[in-house]
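Late entry, evening session. Most of the bench is empty. Finally got around to the prediction I had been postponing all week. Sequence below, unchanged from the version circulated by S.P.
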Amino acid sequence: MNPFNNGRRAALSSIRTLALLTGALCVAAGSSAQTAAAYPAKPVRLIVPFAAGGAVDLIGRQMAVALTEALNQAFVVENRPGAGGLLAYEQVAASAPDGYTLAVGAAGPLSMSPSLYKDRNFDPLTRFDPVIWYASTPGVLVVNPNVKAGKVSELVGLSKASKQQLNMGSAGSGSINHLMGEYFQEKSGIKWLHVPYKGSAPALNELMAGRIDVMMDIVPTASPLVSSGKLRALAVTTPKRSTLLPDTPTLKELGYKDFDVSSWISLMAPRGTPPEVVQKLNAALNKALQTPTARARLQVVGAEAEGGAPERVTQRLQLEIPRWAGIIKSSGAKAD
């Protein structure tokens, strides 16, 4: 047997194998590029994890309009509430990763529900490919006008000095405004008595009536009540002031340097969605966020434009999931 011929045959075999692999990669790359170029070739479902009418739904519908206008295809909103938003997310995560079923990502279900619904064993970091952090809705610390505190420092002092605990309302145990309130208490070294309600609206009604003292809510629902004098706003929870409450300071301004909490909205795709499709969606929404029309639509509902790379969503979740897990554990919060 000629060792030279054996070596030659082995070399030729390696060359053929490399050629086949290279050809396959080229075909795959071409196919992926064609998929992205043709996308979307049919209507896209956009699943909202809450009922119609709330801030998440309204902003999700704004994203649908922006994508429909940019990509010349219908993006159809479907509301699927339940299990703190996890029903919707489980449905989307189990869908084909082709870009035709997407989820409107909300801060509460994505970052809090993994700790509130441990039995469902749902991890958004491994089940989704993020597309974009689209907008943020600041939280706001509000009190009823009878509370003798016009500043956060006065509220903290009153909370520490009072023989009877102040009452804090919320939209329910485990809701985002409940946990924002628990987070503020932890940061300021105080303790309020939590009074959960079935939704933000009844809690705000009780706050205006003076039957509870304090609440953390989101700007879109609280700001009209502040503007009318029915509630007093002491601080917003994001590093930047809200356009709807420009005279209300941020907690960061008041010395809570790491306090950055919001009800943020994102767009999420099932894990394994082609990167070219994700990038196409990301580029379309980033471009939309630069227009006065899109920014004005967000401001109407009290939201601030965000945008940027998909990685911003991942970074936010990596920060918030463990933070809320700690707050949920220390406060004993349970899902309603």
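Two things to note before I forget:
The chain has a mean pLDDT of 90.
Strands lie at 44-48, 75-79, 101-106, 128-143, 167-170, 193-196, 214-218, 232-236, 262-270, 304-305.
Will write this up properly tomorrow.
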